[in-house]
Write a structure and sequence with these properties.
Low-confidence stretches: 1-7, 128-134
CATH class: Mainly Alpha
Shape: elongated
Largest sheet: none
Strand content: under 5%
Number of domains: 1
CATH superfamily: Tetratricopeptide repeat domain
Mean pLDDT: 84
Structural class: mainly alpha
CATH topology: Serine Threonine Protein Phosphatase 5, Tetratricopeptide repeat
Length: about 150
């Protein structure tokens, strides 16, 4: 199953250009010390879409603030929190937030698509982990056999 199977979850894979993020950052900074909720949301969204883990973490932190302070934005925040954690490779956290959204909106195609993408990554990373573990165990086993063979001579 390729990532293109999840067209609604495109936000999880698309990044924002540096210039676009800079526009959002400048707007956010202009509105300090009390930026509008939409401005803060836009900047958090842009940070989450960055390729930088540090910026993604900052965006997730800001999205958490919005989620906690503005009930009317919770649905969107749950979705973008899930994307943020997904992009940072924190799939269990990504799943927590997407499941919260799906509990409220079970037929949300965008959320279902993102959950599928998360599941795909977990399955792939799990298989890679098993392969690595299997390779390590095989190497340890070969060394143990070699040592035992030397001792028995």
């Amino acid at each position: 199953m390729s990532d293109s199977y999840f067209p609604y979850a495109a936000d999880a894979e698309q990044r924002l250009m540096a210039g676009e993020l800079l526009v959002l950052q400048r707007q956010y900074e202009r509105e300090q010390p009390r930026p509008r909720v939409q401005t803060k949301f836009n900047y958090a969204w842009g940070l989450i879409k960055s390729d930088s883990k540090q910026e993604q973490r900052r965006g997730v932190a800001m999205m958490h603030e919005i989620h906690n302070e503005h009930a009317e934005r919770r649905r969107e925040c749950l979705y973008y929190l899930s994307i943020g954690y997904y992009k940072m490779g924190e799939y269990s956290n990504a799943r927590v937030y997407i499941e919260q959204l799906l509990a409220v909106e079970p037929s949300n195609a965008q959320a279902q698509s993102l959950r599928g993408l998360i599941d795909q990554k977990v399955a792939r990373d799990g298989l890679i982990g098993l392969a690595v573990s299997g390779g390590v165990l095989a190497a340890v086993g070969a060394v143990a056999v070699a040592i035992l063979a030397k001792r028995s001579k």
